[in-house]
TrEMBL record:
Stretch forming the signal peptide: none
Organism of derivation: Streptomyces roseirectus
Protein name: TerD family protein
Family: Belongs to the CAPAB/TerDEXZ family.
Pfam families named among the record's database cross-references: TerD
InterPro entries documented for this protein: Stress/Tellurium_Resist, Tellurite_resistance_TerA, TerD
Superkingdom of source: Bacteria
Domain TerD: 15-166
Length: 379
């Protein structure tokens, strides 16, 4: 649909997809939603994005990113039936991280009926230059019904400028309530580590998510990846948190790490998740987060994966895994160390190839010198 056009929205449960093409030098793009009353948010809570992924009402949820066939997509789920009566508009925006939208090819926003999967509206944005943030579209009420309008309004002041324009408070530490944090940290080979302590993530929880995408035309049926963590406590005790043997751990007692569940479907909306209790960071010496292929694939080849570490306080940390070119069934993802009271996260993204007869767990143990004794397990 052309810029400025509008269409009726016949469904209430919507899946909003913001997409772009991959390519050399293309900046990362982050999608967000703002719930507006009289053209402004009521509070910072009305801003849904990567560092605040769900609205308190349950109306809007940020579902994360996927990569498939050279296209990166980011999804927001919107339930119009639950939008509070005073909310007139749900604004759909995007910001560029590390460049401008003039370098982003194939940018679009697509509105789908979440139940049927049918396309309600699609707007392909073009003609961008120095803009670092865009309002792509908006869902708005008109005479008791909802419509979608293609907007295409750009900002050269980034996500912060866009957010401030709609009444969101950014970077004002003197406020009693903490402002919305718009920053995130992306780890790369050149810059593989970040201090959680210096980022302000010294208490609360640290949520670790692994999401993956199979190659186009490949079925996810039967694919089972397991997120795991080796841990060493300050008192020298060592162990593993994993689905095998139902060793799901605990947040309230040692090891202060809990595997949220076992996603045996490869469902991309959830992926694999575990949580670390940072209130007990002094009890942790090191934690190695890794993933194994339990079933459904012979290696990680073609399984495009993204790791996101989201502290309750401080900026989220994310990174992508490199393409797997070896017959690997275990990949070390991230190493969290506590040295002198400073928590540091290091991107590992290291594919390991088990020797014949050696389990993936024992393989990663040997690679990082954990020194544990292993027995066969099942789930």
């Amino acid at each position: 649909m052309p810029k400025g056009a509008n269409v009726p929205v016949p469904a209430t449960a919507l899946r909003i997809e913001c997409g772009r093409r991959l390519g050399p030098g293309v900046p990362d793009v982050d999608a967000s939603a703002l719930l507006l009353v009289g053209g402004k948010v009521r509070s910072d809570d009305d801003f849904v994005f990567y560092n605040q992924p769900a609205h308190a009402s349950g109306t809007v949820r940020h579902e994360g990113k996927k990569t498939s066939g050279g296209i990166v997509t980011e999804t927001l789920l919107v339930d119009l039936a639950r939008v509070e009566p005073e909310v007139e508009t749900v604004l759909l925006a995007a910001s560029a991280d590390g460049g401008s939208f003039g370098s982003v090819p194939g940018l679009y926003v697509e509105v789908r009926d979440a139940a049927r999967g049918t396309v309600v509206a699609r707007f392909e944005s073009s003609g961008a230059s120095v803009e670092t943030a865009f309002v792509l579209g908006e869902l708005y009420r008109r005479q008791g019904a909802w419509k979608f309008r293609a907007v295409g309004q750009g900002y050269d002041s980034g996500l912060e400028g866009l957010a401030t324009d709609y009444g969101i408070t950014v970077d004002e530490p003197q406020r009693t309530a903490p402002p919305v944090q718009l920053t995130k940290v992306t780890l790369t080979k050149a810059a593989p580590a970040v201090s959680l302590t210096k980022q302000g993530a010294t208490s609360g929880t640290l949520h670790v998510n692994l999401n993956w995408q199979t190659p186009p035309g490949t079925s996810q049926a039967g694919l089972d990846l397991d997120l795991c963590a080796l841990y060493e406590l300050a008192d020298g005790r060592k162990g593993v948190v994993q689905a095998l043997g139902n060793a799901f751990g605990s947040l309230a007692r040692p090891p202060y790490i809990h595997l949220d569940g076992d996603d045996r479907t490869g469902a991309l909306t959830a992926g694999e998740n575990l949580t670390v209790n940072l209130d007990h960071a002094t009890d942790l010496r090191r934690v190695l987060v890794f993933v194994t292929v339990y079933a459904g694939a012979r290696s990680f080849a073609g399984l495009h994966a993204t790791v996101t570490l989201r502290p309750q306080r401080g900026a989220p940390v994310d990174f992508s895994l490199d393409e797997c070119t070896v017959p690997s069934t275990v990949c070390a993802l991230a190493l969290i160390t506590n040295t002198g009271g400073e928590l540091v996260v290091r991107r590992e993204a290291r594919y390991l190839v088990p020797e014949r007869g050696v389990s993936p767990q024992r393989t990663v143990d040997r690679a990082y010198g954990w020194g544990m004794n292993w027995t066969p397990g099942r789930k």
